[in-house]
Amino acid sequence: MASIEPKVAVLMGSASDAVSMQGCRDLLENLEIPYEIKVLSAHRTPDQTREYVVSAAAKGIEVIIAAAGWAAHLAGVAAAYTTLPVIGIPIDSSLKYPSIAQKVTDYREGMTRETLQKARNFETGK
Fold first, then answer.
1. CA 18 to the chain's CA centroid
2. Which residues have CB under 8 Å from 86's CB, separation 6+?
3. What does the buried/exposed string (b/e) look like for 42-75 if buried means 16 or more CB atoms within 10 Å of the residue's CB?
4. Could you report the per-residue pLDDT of 16-62, keeping only the tens digit for each?
5. Sheet holding 86-90, edge to edge
6. 65 strand-pairing partners
7. What's the CA angle centered on 53, arms 6 and 14, to 5 degrees?
8. H-type helices in the chain, by residue range?
9. What is the pLDDT of residues 63-115, one digit of tens each?
């Protein structure tokens, strides 16, 4: 959306994330919410990311939507430099090995169960 000052910044870690973020863009357009899109990377362009986020509020941006794959650090990096709301969207396309991702998920769930059980034992004096 041009000619209207953007209220939402859509940050993508890579131009290839544009396909995954099309639904976001469509929704913003349907709701007539002015936005701008920037390709910024927490890892490849950290200085430019910081500069953009630090100046976003002064430009009228009210919300930042940050989408990135792999470690999905873009939202966290953006949030570190602003008090604006930051919405993080992990891009699924970064999962090269879904079977390993499932194993990691299962492992984390096991760790969660174990941690909660240890907490219950501690709290009940066991």
1. 14
2. 63, 64, 65, 66, 75, 78, 79
3. beeeeeebbebbeebeeeebeebbbbbbbebbbb
4. 899 999 999 999 999 999 999 999 999 999 999 999 999 999 999 99
5. 35-39, 8-12, 63-68, 86-90
6. 10, 87
7. 85
8. 22-30, 46-56, 74-80, 98-123
9. 999 999 877 899 999 999 999 999 999 887 556 677 787 888 888 899 899 99
Kindly state the greatest CA–CA separation across the chain. Answer: 65
- Which pLDDT tens digit goes with each residue over 37-49? 999 999 999 999 9
Cβ count within 10 A of residue 104? 11
Structure tokens at 65: 């939507």
Q: Give the contacts of 66 (CB within 8 A, at least 6 positions apart).
A: 11, 13, 74, 75, 78, 86, 87, 88, 89
Q: Which residue has the tokens 């701008």?
A: 36
- Quick one: how far is CA 121 from the chain centroid? 36
